[in-house]
UniProtKB/TrEMBL annotation:
It comes from the Bacteria. This is TldD/PmbA family protein. InterPro entries: Metalloprtase-TldD/E_C, TldD/PmbA_N, TldD/PmbA_sf. It holds the Pfam family PmbA_TldD_3rd. One of its GO terms (molecular function) is metallopeptidase activity. The lineage of its organism: Bacteria, Bacillati, Actinomycetota, Actinomycetes, Kitasatosporales. Residues 227-458 form the Metalloprotease TldD/E C-terminal domain. GO terms for biological process: proteolysis.
Length: 464
């Protein structure tokens, strides 16, 4: 048995056999990536990588409670497997009782493909995309544009086994494309991004055409001061804001009075209306095109996850339903503490319930306002209101009488996604999107564009 030739499920089984702890969870993540990078209308690098990470979670019962120890390592050989298991057991014995301790999950049917070989990606994932990208380079060159960017595809096969008999498996493909178009003098820049499972639904020519239009808009420059403007947020910007809101939606933190989801005087705001629009914010592991693991995979414990919950089914959940807050994220432990339903954190996020207008159609119905491209460098200012700050990037455009009339300067913004949902007056057509700020951690999102009156552009930014 070696890190390269043994089968992941065999490594999981062997680690469980070696365990001397009261409970054990083993997670083997077999991952492979393929990527392309380009600059100045020419491919620069490409590559393929493969690897495996093994995580062993040992639980030890004691008079004061159950402790857990977690150890993760990459490229574990046969000789290193038993020391890894012993290290996890030693970590558990050296730790105090785990606050989130619960009995390990039982009763989940085994995955029929648990013993199958891991899925892998390769450069073949770009078989159709790469030639189309080359054609986009030629068109951009002829049009006086320079294209920069990268395409990345990752496939992770996760094998999860426990001492209570769980044998689960999930294959997760994730692809991202980021494309920048720049004018030859580098004074104008436009960005577009896409999330994909297999690069078969990504059209470089269409993206280049979109960026060419935006560079054309930027030929006229208008300077605007800081202030509050009616603003059209494209799906990528909406995703970045609502992903951060989701990460902040811990049921325990809300019940303990620490977040925007805390009710004054005690308890949570579940049941309150968060939007006058009939918007539904939800997660669903079986959402077409956004599929994710239908069970909990927790390599560590935190506010919204627990290693004791590994293998727990993660069903479809409405977080906000038709404008009303319905769920906050909980583990089994935090659900018991707060009296809230068990609601594992999602692997995808969808906002729907808007009209069917495209972003272009929303622009056509705008008398005067700003159209954003994307947001960047988002940071939290105040957890009590979930006030966030960040920057606009790669194009902010002025809309007048239903048409884009030029590019304006970039801004720093100060807004809360919770308040934006409350104030939004229109939501357009929901579509799959790539969050630019959080795309390294969260790619499975579908959002509409939002129209927000008086979006707070708090200061002018000199960024491009």
């Amino acid at each position: 048995m070696s890190a390269r030739t043994d089968k992941p499920h065999e490594t999981v089984e062997r680690a469980l056999e070696l365990s001397r702890a009261d409970g054990c969870v083993v997670i083997a993540d077999e991952h492979s990536t393929a990527n392309l990078r380009w600059a100045g209308n020419a491919l620069t690098t490409n590559g393929v990588t493969r690897g495996r990470t093994l995580t062993v979670i040992a639980t030890v019962d004691g008079k004061e409670g159950t402790a857990s120890g977690v150890v993760s390592r990459s490229a574990v050989t046969a000789e290193e497997l038993e020391p890894l298991v012993r290290a996890a057991e030693a970590a558990a014995r050296g730790a105090g009782p785990a606050e989130d301790a619960r009995p390990l999950v039982t009763g989940v049917p085994a995955a029929p493909d648990f013993t199958d070989a891991p899925a892998e990606t390769s450069s073949a994932v770009f078989a159709d995309f790469a030639p189309a990208l080359g054609e986009a380079f030629a068109r951009a060159r002829a049009g006086g544009r320079e294209l920069y960017g990268f395409a990345n595809h990752e496939l992770v096969s996760t094998y999860l086994g426990t001492s209570t008999g769980l044998r689960l498996r999930h294959d997760q493909p994730a692809g991202t494309l980021e494309l920048n178009a720049k004018s030859p003098d580098r004074t104008r820049s436009a960005w577009a991004g896409r999330a994909t499972r297999d690069f078969k639904d990504v059209d470089p020519a269409a993206l280049d055409a979109e960026l060419a239009v935006r560079l054309g808009w930027a030929e006229r420059s208008v300077q605007l001061p800081a202030g509050r403007y009616e603003t059209l947020l494209p799906p990528t910007a909406v995703a970045d804001l609502l992903i951060y809101q989701m990460w902040s939606a811990s049921g325990r933190d809300a019940a303990e009075g620490r977040t925007v989801f805390s009710r004054p005087g005690g308890g949570t705001r579940i049941g309150e209306r968060f939007s006058e629009l009939p918007l539904t914010l939800r997660g669903d592991p079986h959402e077409p095109g956004l599929e994710c693991a239908p069970f909990v995979v927790a390599h560590s414990s935190g506010d919204d996850r627990s290693v004791f919950d590994n293998g727990l089914p993660a069903p479809a959940t409405d977080w906000i339903r038709e404008g009303v807050l319905r769920r906050l994220t909980t583990t089994r432990h935090s659900a018991a503490l707060t009296g809230l339903p068990v609601a594992p954190a999602p692997g995808n996020l969808i906002l729907d319930g808007g009209n069917e207008r495209s972003l272009d159609e929303m622009v056509a119905h705008t008398e005067r306002g700003l159209l954003l491209t994307c947001l960047w460098y988002i940071r939290e200012v105040d957890p009590a209101t979930l006030l966030l700050t960040g920057l606009t990037r790669d194009g902010v455009y002025l809309v007048e009488n239903g048409e884009v009339t030029g590019q304006v300067n970039n801004f720093r913004f100060n807004e809360s996604p919770v308040d934006l949902l409350r104030r939004a007056t229109e939501a357009g057509r929901t579509e799959k999107t790539l969050p630019r700020e959080w795309g390294d951690w969260f790619t499975r999102a579908a959002m509409p564009a939002l129209r927000v009156p008086e979006f707070n552009m708090s200061s002018v930014s000199q960024g491009v």
